[in-house]
Amino acid sequence: MTWLKDVIGTEKAIIAMCHLLPLPGDPSYDHAKGMDYVIEMARKDFLALQEGGVDAVMFSNEFSLPYLTDVKTETVAAMARIIGELMPLIKIPFGVNVLWDAKKSLDLAAATGAKFVREIFTGVYASDFGLWNTNVGETIRHQHRIGASNVKLLFNIVPEAAKYVADREIESVVKSTVFNNRPDALCVSGLTAGAETNDEILHRVKKMAGNTVVLANTGIRLENVERQLSIADGAVVGTTFKYDGVFENHVDVQRVKALMAKVKAFRGDKISV
């Protein structure tokens, strides 16, 4: 049994993304509508996900495009306000992801009581955001300094829109990441949000990961969810829960219910009457 059962309540867990609209400081932030509108839309999307039956939610500043790797204070402050205002409504476990800044994700988790964070913790990459470096040793020490030792760390080892500077086989990446860093989970992604995770790569990661949780990180849909969950220990799901399966749209509760019904049947969950 993995930590997913203890922290999220089930194996083969579905972690749904609650994508926040552009925030203060972001190029596309709507100054006229302001933070009240951002919070209203976050509440709407979150409640649709929760009502739809997802196992957990991860809040992310998904529309803070183009992303920073050294995120500004105003972004973390805005995310903390949103989660704080939603807190009375939250009945399921939640995590956070401040794109793409591991320390800021941990700061937000410590402030809000998030159970997990997903980030790029290791590696050096050639990316759409320039040369992307990390410092996992300092990040983990920061985690312990701020009292976030119990926050589970989801390592994104196949980053979206980026590639290792060194030519490394995925098996090498998995083996050294697990040995050196003891991640709580490894996230395997497609090229962008909504792009299907490659089955072969998922298999190769799972084979090398030992007892470490492996999550399919992008591109889960009705037609592939059973296949991907037969390989992975769980999945992070965002785009497919939105109206018409379009990244920019808001969450459609009927799409959430449809996918979760299939997941729960696959898991053999007891359905309460």
UniProtKB/TrEMBL annotation:
Output the Pfam families linked to this UniProt entry.
Answer: BtpA
Per its UniProt record, what InterPro entries does this chain match?
A: BtpA, RibuloseP-bd_barrel
Its family?
Belongs to the BtpA family.
**What PANTHER family does the record tag this protein with?**
SGC REGION PROTEIN SGCQ-RELATED, ZGC:162297
Q: What is this protein called?
A: BtpA/SgcQ family protein
Q: Which organism is it from?
A: Cohnella pontilimi
